[in-house]
Design brief:
390 residues; 13 helices; 16 strands; Enolase-like, domain 1; binds magnesium ion; alpha/beta; 32% helix
Length: 390
C-alpha cells in the first residue's frame, strides 16, 4: 500500500429528529470525511469527533488540524505492508483517537478494495448478519418516549437503549417496564451521576435491565468498581475505555461486566480488535456503540460488529432514521427481524454517492506526497477549497 492522495472534507447534515442526551441536544452534525487513494482505488473514513468537547475532548477542528499537520503527512507516499502497519505508524500520535481512526478506517477500506474482499472479512469477522438495537434520546415527555419505543419495536429492533439523567430515570424506566415487560432494555447515563447516587442507581436493579452504561465519571474506574459491587445489573463502560489497556484495568478492577466499543473512541480497527480479543478471552461481551454516524461511519460499524466477541445487539441502526441526506447506496437497512446483513461486495460494500457528498460539503482539501520525498510535509492541493456550504 502506497497512498498517493488524501482528500479531507467537512460535510454538514441535518438530523431528522433532535437527539437529546445528558450532555445536550444535537440538531445537525458537522462531520469530517476522509478519502485515501492509491491509483484508481479509494478507501473512505468518517471522523466521529463532535462539534463540542463534551463526549470527548476532540472536536471537528482539533481532528482536522491533527490530520492535516501530523497524520496525513506521516502516511502519504510511504510504502506500507497494509492497514495494520499504517495503524502502527499513526499510533505515534498520542491521543486524538477519532482523528487517527478516520484515517486508519479509510486505509482498511482501501486495503479491502485492493484485495477485492469485503472489509469485514479482511478484519476477521465471523457474522454475516449482525443484530441491531437502537438508542433513543431523552424525550420531551414520557408518553413520547413510550411512542418512540413502540415505533422502534415495530421496525424490528432487538433491544432498546434509553438515555437517562438525574430527574429522567427511575420513574421513566418504571413506566417503560410496565408497558413493555419483556423488552430487552438498557440505559445510558453518559456520566451524569456521581458516587453519591449509588443507592439511587441500585434501585434500577428492580427493572431487569441488560446493563447500565457509563453512570459515573468518564475517566473513572475505581468508583465504577465500587458501584458495580453494589449492583446486580451489569455496568457497561463506554467513555472510560480508550484502549485495550483501559479495558484490562476495568476488568481487573471489576469496574464493568460489559464493554461498548466505538471505533473513534479507541482509535480505529486495530485497537478495537485488541479490546474485542481481550474481552472475548475473559468471556466479557462487547457491542458496537454509535456516534450518530452518517453512511460511511455506519458501514465501518457494521464491519466491526461482525467480530466474534460482539455478542450483544449494538447501536448500529438503519441509516435512514438519522439524516436528511443519504450518502451511500443502498442505505444501511435493518430488516424486519432486527438484523443487518454484512455486505458481500469489496470494501464497505456499498456505493459512495459522491454527488450527494459534494452537495453537503462545506470545504475540502487534497494532499499529495511532498516532492522532497516521502518523509517531508504533505503538499496541499489547489482548487479544493471553498465548496459552498448548503
Ligand atoms: Mg454511551
Amino acid at each position: 500500500m502506497r497512498i498517493d492522495r488524501i482528500e479531507l472534507r467537512e460535510i454538514h447534515l441535518k438530523l431528522k429528529q433532535p437527539f437529546v442526551t445528558s450532555m445536550g441536544t444535537q440538531q445537525a452534525r458537522r462531520i469530517l470525511l476522509l478519502r485515501v487513494s492509491q491509483a484508481d482505488r479509494d478507501g473512505w473514513g468518517e471522523c466521529t469527533a463532535g462539534e463540542d468537547p463534551f463526549y470527548s475532548y476532540e472536536t471537528v477542528e482539533t481532528a482536522a488540524q491533527v490530520l492535516e499537520r501530523f497524520l496525513i503527512p506521516s502516511v502519504l507516499g510511504i510504502e506500507l505492508s497494509g492497514a495494520e502497519a499504517l495503524a502502527e505508524r499513526v499510533a505515534a500520535v498520542r491521543g486524538h483517537p477519532m482523528a487517527r481512526a478516520a484515517l486508519e478506517c479509510a486505509c482498511w477500506e482501501l486495503e479491502a478494495r485492493q484485495r477485492e474482499q469485503p472489509l469485514w472479512r479482511l478484519l476477521g469477522g465471523v457474522r454475516p448478519v449482525i443484530r441491531s438495537g437502537v438508542s433513543i434520546g431523552i424525550q420531551p415527555a414520557p408518553e413520547r418516549l413510550l411512542e418512540r419505543i413502540e415505533t422502534e419495536l415495530e421496525a424490528g429492533y432487538q433491544r432498546i437503549k434509553i438515555k437517562i439523567k438525574p430527574g429522567w430515570d427511575l420513574d421513566i424506566v418504571d413506566r417503560v417496564r410496565q408497558r413493555f415487560p419483556e423488552l430487552a432494555l438498557m440505559v445510558d447515563a453518559n456520566s451524569a451521576y456521581t458516587p453519591a447516587h449509588a443507592e439511587h442507581l441500585a434501585r434500577l436493579d428492580a427493572y431487569r435491565l441488560m446493563m447500565i452504561e457509563q453512570p459515573l465519571g468518564h475517566d473513572d474506574l475505581i468508583e465504577h468498581a465500587r458501584l458495580q459491587r453494589g449492583l446486580r445489573t451489569p455496568i457497561c463502560l463506554d467513555e472510560s475505555i480508550r484502549n485495550a489497556g483501559d479495558a484490562a484495568a476495568a476488568l481487573e478492577l471489576g469496574s464493568c461486566r460489559i464493554i461498548n466499543i466505538k471505533l473513534g473512541r479507541v482509535g480505529g480497527f486495530r485497537e478495537a480488535r485488541a479490546v474485542e480479543t481481550l474481552c472475548r478471552g475473559r468471556g466479557v461481551p462487547v457491542w458496537c456503540g454509535g456516534m450518530l454516524e452518517a453512511g460511511i461511519g455506519r458501514l465501518h460499524n457494521v464491519a466491526l460488529s461482525t467480530l466474534e466477541g460482539f455478542r450483544l445487539p449494538g447501536d448500529v441502526a438503519d441509516s435512514r432514521r438519522y439524516y436528511d441526506r443519504e450518502l451511500i447506496d443502498p442505505p444501511v437497512i435493518v430488516r424486519p427481524d432486527g438484523t443487518i446483513a454484512a455486505p458481500e461486495l469489496p470494501g464497505l460494500g456499498h456505493r459512495i454517492l459522491l454527488p450527494e457528498i459534494d452537495s453537503v460539503t462545506a470545504w475540502k482539501r487534497s494532499y499529495f506526497p511532498s516532492p522532497s520525498g516521502p518523509a517531508g510535509p504533505a503538499r496541499r492541493g489547489v482548487g479544493g477549497e471553498g465548496v459552498k456550504p448548503r
